[in-house]
Design brief:
The protein is mainly beta. The protein is built from 1 helix and 4 strands, in the order αββββ.
Length: 66
């Protein structure tokens, strides 16, 4: 019997990423001028750089939690 694709991937679980000791998740940042993958804390706040601009997902030094 075949298993649903979603059932197989659900068993793997989600990877959890940490930034500055807090859990983050990838989100899509969309503005009038820019559109890229960024990160969001569990509280809903975006991960920002020192000047208050959202950081790109590829620029964030992420740690995976085990």
């Amino acid at each position: 019997m075949a298993k649903a694709k979603t059932a197989a991937t659900a068993k793997l679980g989600k990877k959890e990423f940490l930034f500055d000791g807090k859990k983050i998740k990838p989100v899509r940042f969309v503005s009038l001028r820019r559109n890229f993958m960024s990160a969001q804390y569990e509280s809903g706040d975006l991960v920002l750089d020192s000047s208050g601009v959202p950081l790109a997902w590829t620029k964030i030094n992420k740690q995976t939690s085990i």
